[in-house]
Amino acid sequence: METIPQRPLKVGILLPVAEYRFAGRTPRWSDLLAIARVAEDAGFDSLWVVDHLLVRAPGQPPEGVWECWSLVSALAASTRRIQIGTLVTCTSWRNPALLAKMAETVDEISDGRLIVGVGAGNTEDEFRTFGFPWEARVSRFAEAIHILHALLRQGRVDFEGRYYQMRACELRPHGPRPSGPPVLVGGYGQRMLELAARYADLWNTYYSHTGNRASGLAPLLAAVDAACAAVGRDPGTLSRTASVLVGLPGHGPICGVAAPPLTGSAEELAEEFRAYARAGISHLQLRIEPNTPAGIEQIAPALALLDRADG
Questions:
Q1: What percentage of the chain has pLDDT greater than the value 70?
Q2: Whole-angstrom Cα distance, residue 59 to residue 37?
Q3: Which band of pLDDT confidence, cut at 50, 70 and 90, is reported for residue 126?
Q4: Contact yes or no for 118/91 (Cβ under 8 A)
Q5: Which one, 74, 163, 217, 246, has the greatest CB density within 10 A?
Q6: What backbone torsions phi and psi does residue 173 show, to the nearest 5 degrees?
Q7: Which NCBIfam families match (predicted)?
């Protein structure tokens, strides 16, 4: 799991797990496995899976999405070195104690390669369509992450909340890491940022909030620093991560995106990745288009340049 020493930050791949996202068609498991293995062989640090149920972008046909944790478990069993993360799983869709059990089990399958990315959810239509309550989702998330964190870190929790109740709940058996897998939180509002500062090991921002450039990070990172100060945490102990949309030569239309893709030569891509590292980002999640094994091979030279000490 160690990265090459010169690499200034980790770089992962966001898998295309929805309809139409695999070069315009639905990815099958064999396609996702092929991407995962090419990415691992090319030296990428991580694979990421979104947690959506049915996406309806304005003016676009609905997109079905393969279930997140089923894929994460399969990836854990099918890879050797690469980290695997959720970006991010919605805590309202699974009981948080069960989610902790799922995470501990996947961490065991992967031999300690899981990153548990969580959030409150952001698409009301998905909640309504699948019968989950949309109201008070951040308050629900606050209770859920408290339970999840306690179970992963201490192995037990007693909790009496408005939305969840746990009675002498224990997380057994334990996986390969005594304190469980790291927790990543994605969110932007003050309450979500303070919850990230209180519970998370990593925080994530998506490209739609940065303008898809490192130059758009500053106000977001300042807000994370302020949230850490508000809860009495050293900001330097909360790692920062960011997703980046990369458009490779020959890519087709990219739907549902609020920022222009990053384009350019391998040298230009590597330099922008370095700019993220200089801004304080420790881990990138790349959504590449086309998101195929060939696309992974096409962007691999930028990763090689990133590893050069004189890059």
A1: 96
A2: 34
A3: very high
A4: yes
A5: 246
A6: -75, 170
A7: F420_Rv2161c
Contact between 220 and 210 under an 8 Å Cβ cutoff? The reply is: yes
Write the pLDDT tens digit of every residue in 245-261.
Answer: 999 987 877 766 778 99
Q: Are the beta carbons of 17 and 27 closer than 8 angstroms?
A: yes
Is 304's pLDDT higher than 60?
yes
Q: How many residues are given for the chain?
A: 311
CB atoms within 10 A of CB 41: 14
- Please name the residue that has the structure tokens 């409150």: 120
**What is the three-class DSSP state of 132?**
coil
Question: According to the model, what pLDDT value does residue 281 have?
Answer: 98
Distances (CA, A) of 184 to 117, 161, 192, 209, 241: 4, 23, 12, 17, 9
Give the C-alpha separation, 24 to 27, whole Å: 9
Q: Fill in the amino acid letter for 188.
A: Y
| SS3 assignment, position 306 | helix
Contact 227, 190 (CB under 8 A): yes
- For 268-291, letters b (16+ CB in 10 Å) and e give ebbbbbbebbebbbebbbbbbbbb
Domain ranges of the chain: 10-134+180-306
Q: Which CATH number is 10-134+180-306 given?
A: 3.20.20.30
Q: What is the pLDDT of residues 17-28, one digit of tens each?
A: 999 899 889 999
